[in-house]
């Protein structure tokens, strides 16, 4: 039940600071009762060690210096104190984390901010080119030209009035938070509370807009239990307050470029606990509905860095990292220049809503089984006839929800021309070098490795037929270019996009031959089509 209503942001902040702190402290006290080997000293020492170790490896900034002083003070005081003094230190740590996490969301500013963001991006982009500054006033960027929104929006809007929504998007770029925030506004959905990476808040302008698009701060560098518990309780409280939430179940950005298969379900797992508490408290709208969301980019801003991070982690000594020539600012400007110049689309697809147990939910809010029969959701959480939280049982429900989300992500994955061409070209290069392992194959690049364009077009045509067949079966989504264009059109469209970003190194076509100057990027975009039975369509 929402205790705040339309309370001012200061009152909301004070409520969250007090309530979350008490809940985290209570949870740790329960843990201490259950585990005789656990102590306040162990809990605090774990956080102290991890935070000081992290800060040793990071640059000196105003924020980091303040953090170093804070943790040094904690370190000086917790070893010689008794449990009462350590509880005071634990409360200090929790309070610091809540203050860091809490956003300054103002629903009254939400609509204004969402309308201004496209102009802001256009303004930043135009300042790169003096000539374009002259046309600034007459050359308005319409966000709808670059953000394609699809899915059962009427149904989702209806469910927003019947319970609390949990948006669960895929995560491939730092731009996801801004794209989703604007997409929710354009879809006429209510404001959402969601966690955005703390790194996005280093710019005060972006920080202001993220706060007022509904974001709170998530620092994924922090791995200690105090921080994770604080974040979990913060999200739990916001859902209990009836605030619609958005989580990235994949956690960090997907570095491989495929569709997430292994989800981090900690925050989603809060949903069952909230549902039980809502039933116990006789909340008139106790239900929570999960909406899978797929973000698809024809080009990804951080693709080069992401795939190199993945390959370095997976390949260890077999991977050789190339130096990045451009800084992050220039890469971002290149990306936005491409969006406007190429009319490149960011696709935001809302999937069919599901309940906390992985069942399909209709527009009236009823859960349905595979035979479309109505399911009584309350029976999932009853214990001796009463709603109750049963940890082992509820964890299995969350795992089932995770499996349903993975399947939804695959069904709702929108395939674009750059993905299809990358898959076809990479398949041909791998077929030509059957004895090479992945890391040797990724070093096989340059004009001398070129494949006849006619061969690529033939393979792309076969792949298109396979994609259409799978789309007809509801196993994936394809954009209009893939659906309506022939192989030559797909090839031309994808190559035009590739030529405008990543220094044009992903794929090139010269003298009738197609080759890559950066096989890692080709592999990254190819992976968007992983987890489907597509290779069989590429063979005669």
Q: Multimeric state of these chains?
A: single chain
The fold-level CATH name of the largest domain is Glycerol-3-phosphate (1)-acyltransferase
**In this structure, how is the largest beta sheet organized?**
7 strands, mixed
What shape does the CA trace take?
globular
What is the first-to-last residue Cα distance? 60 Å
Rounded to an integer in angstroms, the radius of gyration calculated over CA atoms is 25 Å
Structural class category = alpha/beta
Please identify, by name, the CATH architecture of the largest domain.
Answer: 3-Layer(aba) Sandwich
Number of distinct beta strands: 17
Instruction: Compute the number of structural domains.
Output: 3
Low-confidence region ranges = 118-142, 323-327
The CATH first-level class of the largest domain comes to: Alpha Beta
User: In which range does the helix fraction lie?
Assistant: 40-55%
- The pLDDT mean sits at 84
Please provide a written account of the structure.
There is one protein chain. It is built from 21 helices and 17 strands. The protein has 540 residues and is an alpha/beta fold. It has three domains: 9-101, no CATH class; 108-298 and 347-410, Glycerol-3-phosphate (1)-acyltransferase; 414-538, no CATH class. The longest helix is centred in the N-terminal third of the chain and has 26 residues, at 9-34. 40% of the residues are buried.
Summarize, please.
This protein is of the alpha/beta class. The protein has helices at 9-34, 40-56, 62-78, 83-101, 107-126, 130-133, 153-160, 176-186, 204-212, 225-240, 270-280, 303-315, 328-342, 391-412, 417-432, 438-441, 453-472, 480-484, 487-498, 519-526, 535-538, and strands spanning 147-150, 164-169, 193-197, 215-218, 245-246, 288-297, 346-350, 360-361, 367-368, 374-375, 382-383, 386-387, 414-415, 451-452, 477-478, 508-510, 513-515. Helix 9 links the parallel strand 3 (193-197) and strand 4.
């Amino acid at each position: 039940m929402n205790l705040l209503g339309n309370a001012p942001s200061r009152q909301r902040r004070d409520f969250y600071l007090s309530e979350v702190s008490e809940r985290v402290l209570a949870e740790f006290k329960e843990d201490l009762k259950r585990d005789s080997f656990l102590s306040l000293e162990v809990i605090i020492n774990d956080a102290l060690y991890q935070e000081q170790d992290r800060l040793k490896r990071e640059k000196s900034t105003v924020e980091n210096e303040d953090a170093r002083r804070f943790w040094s003070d904690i370190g000086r005081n917790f070893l010689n104190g008794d449990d009462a003094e350590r509880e005071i230190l634990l409360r200090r740590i929790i309070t610091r984390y809540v203050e860091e996490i809490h956003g300054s969301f103002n629903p009254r500013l939400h609509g204004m901010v969402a309308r201004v963001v496209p102009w802001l991006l256009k303004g930043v982009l135009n300042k790169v080119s003096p000539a374009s500054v002259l046309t600034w006033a007459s050359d308005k960027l319409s966000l709808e030209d670059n953000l394609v929104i699809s899915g059962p929006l009427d149904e989702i809007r209806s469910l927003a009035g019947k319970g609390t929504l949990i948006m669960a998007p895929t995560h491939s770029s730092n731009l996801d938070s801004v794209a989703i925030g604007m997409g929710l506004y354009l879809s006429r959905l209510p404001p959402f509370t969601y966690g955005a990476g703390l790194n996005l808040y280093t710019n005060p302008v972006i920080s202001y807009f993220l706060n007022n698009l509904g974001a709170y701060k998530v620092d994924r560098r922090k791995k200690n239990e105090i921080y994770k518990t604080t974040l979990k309780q913060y999200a739990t409280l916001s859902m209990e307050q009836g605030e619609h939430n958005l989580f990235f179940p994949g956690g960090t950005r997907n570095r491989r470029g495929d569709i997430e298969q292994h989800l981090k379900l900690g925050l989603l797992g809060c949903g069952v606990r909230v549902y039980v508490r809502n039933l116990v408290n006789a909340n008139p709208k106790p239900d929570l509905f999960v909406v899978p969301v797929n973000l698809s980019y024809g080009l990804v801003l951080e693709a080069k860095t992401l795939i190199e991070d993945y390959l370095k982690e997976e390949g260890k000594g077999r991977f050789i990292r190339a130096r990045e020539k451009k800084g992050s600012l220039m890469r971002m400007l290149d990306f936005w220049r491409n969006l406007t110049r190429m009319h490149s689309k960011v696709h935001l697809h809302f999937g069919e809503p599901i309940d906390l147990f992985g069942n399909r939910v209709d527009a009236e809010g009823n859960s349905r089984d595979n035979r479309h029969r109505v399911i009584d959701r309350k029976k999932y959480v009853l214990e001796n006839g009463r709603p109750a939280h049963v940890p082992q049982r509820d964890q299995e429900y969350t795992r089932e929800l995770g499996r349903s989300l993975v399947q939804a992500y695959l069904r709702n994955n929108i395939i674009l021309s750059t993905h299809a061409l990358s898959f076809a070209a990479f398949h041909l290069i791998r077929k030509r070098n059957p004895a090479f392992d992945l890391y040797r194959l990724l070093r096989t690049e340059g004009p001398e490795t070129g494949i006849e364009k006619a061969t690529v077009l033939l393979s792309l045509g076969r792949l298109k037929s396979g994609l259409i067949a799978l789309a007809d079966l509801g196993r994936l989504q394809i954009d209009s270019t893939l659906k309506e264009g022939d192989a030559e059109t797909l090839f031309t469209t994808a190559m035009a996009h590739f030529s405008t970003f990543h220094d044009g190194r992903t794929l090139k076509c010269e003298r009738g031959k197609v080759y890559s100057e950066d096989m890692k990027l080709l592999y990254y975009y190819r992976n968007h089509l992983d987890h489907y039975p597509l290779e069989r369509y590429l063979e005669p």
